[in-house]
Specification:
The protein is of the alpha+beta class. The chain folds into five domains: 64 residues, no CATH class; 91 residues, no CATH class; 81 residues, no CATH class; 212 residues, Ribonuclease H-like superfamily/Ribonuclease H (Nucleotidyltransferase, domain 5, 2-Layer Sandwich), CATH 3.30.420; 171 residues, no CATH class. The chain has 27 helices and 18 strands. The longest helix has 23 residues.
Length: 750
């Protein structure tokens, strides 16, 4: 194997694709995008309109700060963004279940028709042509549902829409390009225009002038428009017409310009060729130029005993040793960036593929994975991440069910499902698994299993765990250090790492979601009751003035979303939007659920379930536990299982901790967490146990968190989703709390 010699290992700082109307939130200050200059970006403070300039390096650091990062809101202050922000729901996942299904159904038809229209000249928007195209789309969807093994759902049962309906959807989708615009109940009816016909004609004419290759500024166009209106008013007065034309304000003019289709604006200002490259993702999804413009996801199954045979290890084992090796299946779920061929996500898991593992892999594409690579001993950084513009998958049920599709939409990406039987539409990921698997196993064999025949008898389950850990680590080291630095035929001999750097210098990328926005998209769904102490999760209290105001108006449970990597803040659904509520004690900021669990267990072992901890003691324990190898691996996310809501409920009931944080000296020794780790019953509760075979997902349905809460143990089941809870081998499934109607994990999108 030939490995390229790296000449320059310095990271490339990306230039982010910010546009007029984009918003930001950083350290309790709101900004809107103002302009780009050589070396950086200018943002304007919303409260006092003061411009502030930042270098590209500063922007990158703020967006990727480990604590309280900058949050980017695409189009927040544009005309469309303001309209969406004024409405009560900001994400597809915030809609009731039935609205989600209707919305995803319409989006799917729009995107499929647009692809057909751009690639087949026979497809037009006439009734006759659309009837044929829509029938083909319906057949494609039916084939995919059958191939995916899913039951008939709202999506697959719903009858084919009429050409008239799809034309109406296309008009809305092309003009707005915000998925919520297709929702029938989204927002109130628009009012009639404030201006008369003459004023509107002038306003529209000057707004269209913005889409010109001389790239005029809005303020200049507004000045020209104002001058023309003044001249017309003078002419009217001279002609004896006393009624003056009103001059639209600068903000009104900006809103009118921003309401133009972004593709139309770019066509006029950038030219046809540049605009086509930028906006042809739906129509020609394989012409990929930018990093994260398109990613492809797939899974790869490994049978452990087959793997050992492949590596030449099985033959060296005695019959007794062979009989002890469990027949377990390991799965690798990965995502690859099509433009650079870089691996942007990799998860090794014992669980059968599910919506949970798919969403966890998708979330991994949005984070810098360098610390993950360091945990596995990699030499190079794993800093390939961002917000994908298109996510290409196959028709497996975990990719086509509602929670995954909702998450992709809330991320701002387009979900691409190739026609049934046309795997070539996802050629990059198919080729990746086919060509890299043997190289990875060769690398794995030489570095991990050299002396396995000398180890003698082993405990089979313990050995299986060691094998699993070794596989996860070796695969990570291979892809990060070897694959990314090996010349790639699909890149004409360039390495994936060099291709990423080159493309990052040439093209702008979209920032990944951060802060509360990430929690809203990827958080765990739970239900809690608000009391005088606020909301309690895993023994931690969350409190705010807004939360208590909500308590006075709500007597039932509320939906919360929790980031398992940061317990310092949660999101609470207020009925018309999300409230961000901080933990009562700031020491929980940046603390993962695994660190907190190990800390609680260390106290429980000392019979200190009601301990009083000084803030300094908690901070020291947090840093101590972060260095624990097993916890660090769980935080890294490569090979940890994806726990469901019911499993967290089950574990929380077993913890039963009531820890008080004080300013005074702690009654607990400062080093109480030394040597602490996650208890055995935590692993069992989370489903981390070797079974004879990877079990399929139980078809128990999932409930809508926004629906009316049922009484008792009743669960609201639908056919729209295949549940993905982990079944614990040799143990009863985790109990379901009577306080929650949710039978699903964080893939249940509200």
């Amino acid at each position: 194997m030939t490995i390229a010699i790296k000449q320059n290992t310095a990271p490339v700082v990306p230039t982010y694709d910010f546009r007029e109307g984009d918003g930001f939130e950083y350290r309790s200050t709101d900004y809107c995008w103002e302009a780009e200059f050589i070396g950086g970006q200018t943002l304007k403070r919303v409260n006092d309109q003061l411009p502030v300039s930042f270098t590209h390096e500063q922007i990158h650091e703020m967006l990727n700060a480990p604590l309280a990062p900058m949050v980017y809101y695409k189009g927040r202050y544009s005309a469309k963004g303001a309209e969406h922000a004024a409405r009560p729901r900001a994400h597809v996942g915030d809609l009731p279940h039935e609205e989600q299904e209707k919305l995803l159904f319409r989006i799917d038809y729009c995107e499929r028709f647009l692809r057909k229209e751009s690639t087949d000249k026979r497809v037009t928007r006439s009734d006759r042509s659309m009837l044929v195209a829509l029938r083909d789309i319906a057949n494609e969807r039916s084939s995919e549902a059958t191939k995916g093994g899913g039951r008939q759902t709202y999506v697959t049962q719903k009858r084919e829409p009429s050409p008239r309906s799809v034309r109406r959807w296309l008009t809305i989708y092309e003009n707005d390009n915000h998925p919520l615009a297709l929702c029938r109940s989204y927002g109130a009816p628009r009012q009639n225009t404030h201006f008369d016909a003459d004023e509107t004609e002038i306003l529209e004419r000057y707004a269209l002038k913005y889409a010109s290759d001389n790239k005029p500024k809005m303020v200049d166009l507004h000045g020209d428009m104002s001058d023309e209106i003044d001249d017309l008013n003078e002419e009217r007065a001279a002609a004896g017409n006393p009624r003056k034309l009103r001059t639209p304000s600068l903000r009104t003019f900006q809103n009118r310009v921003n309401s133009l289709s972004p593709a139309y604006r770019d066509y006029g200002r950038l030219g046809k060729e540049a605009a086509s490259k930028k906006w042809n993702a739906i129509s020609k999804g394989l012409e990929i130029l930018r990093p994260m413009e398109r990613i492809e996801m797939d899974e790869w199954r490994l049978d452990l005993h087959v793997l050992l045979a492949t590596l030449g290890i099985w033959q060296k084992m005695s019959k007794k040793e062979q009989n002890k090796v469990p027949r377990i299946r390991l799965w690798v779920t990965a995502a690859i960036d099509v433009a650079s061929k870089c691996l942007v996500a990799l998860r090794v898991h014992r669980q059968a593929p599910s919506a949970m593992t798919a969403i966890a892999t998708l979330e991994m594409t949005t984070i810098d994975k360098t610390q993950i690579a360091r945990q596995f001993g990699c030499q190079d950084a794993w800093d390939f991440f961002g917000s994908a513009e298109m996510v290409a998958v196959d028709s497996a049920k975990w990719f086509t069910n509602q929670p995954f599709r909702v998450t992709v939409n809330d991320l701002g990406a387009t979900l691409f499902l190739p026609p049934a039987g046309k795997a070539s539409c996802r050629g990059t990921i198919e080729s990746f698994f086919r060509t890299s698997s043997s190289q990875a196993l060769d690398f794995f064999s030489g570095r991990t299993w050299g002396s396995v025949e000398e180890k003698g008898d082993r405990d089979s389950e313990a050995e299986a765990s060691v094998m699993f850990d070794a596989i996860a680590g070796a695969l990570t080291r291979f892809y990060v250090d070897v694959y990314h630095n090996t010349p790639h035929s699909g890149l004409h001999g360039e390495t994936p790492r060099d291709a990423w750097k080159r493309l990052l210098r040439q093209h702008k990328v979209i920032p990944a979601p951060t802060g509360s926005l990430r929690r809203h998209i990827f958080g765990i769904n739970m239900h809690r009751v608000i009391d005088q102490n606020g909301v309690r999760f895993m023994g931690i209290h969350y409190q705010s003035v807004a939360l208590q105001a909500l308590r006075r108006n709500r007597t039932s449970q509320v939906l919360i979303r929790v980031d398992h990597y940061d317990l310092g803040e949660i999101s609470v659904w207020a009925g018309d939007g999300w409230l961000s509520v901080k933990a009562f004690d700031e020491e929980f900021q940046g603390m993962s659920i695994w660190v907190w669990t190990a800390l609680c267990d260390a106290l429980r072992r000392r019979h200190l379930e009601k301990a009083k901890l000084a803030r300094a003691t908690i901070r020291k324990a947090k840093e101590t536990l972060r260095t624990d190898g097993k916890i660090a691996r769980l935080e890294a996310g490569i090979d940890n299982p994806v726990a469901s809501e019911s499993q967290y409920e089950y574990w929380e009931s077993k913890m039963n901790m009531n820890i008080e944080v004080t300013e005074k000296t702690s009654s607990v020794p400062e080093d109480f967490a030394n040597g602490a780790s996650l208890p055995e019953d935590f692993w069992v509760a989370m489903g981390i146990e070797i079974s004879d075979e990877a079990l399929p997902d139980p078809n128990i349905g999932w409930s809508d968190p926004m629906a009316t809460q049922p009484d008792g143990d009743g669960l609201v089941e639908t056919d729209a989703q295949v549940a993905t809870n982990v079944v614990v081998a040799g143990d009863a499934p985790p109990r379901r709390s009577k306080k929650s109607s949710v039978a699903q994990d964080f893939d249940s999108k509200a």
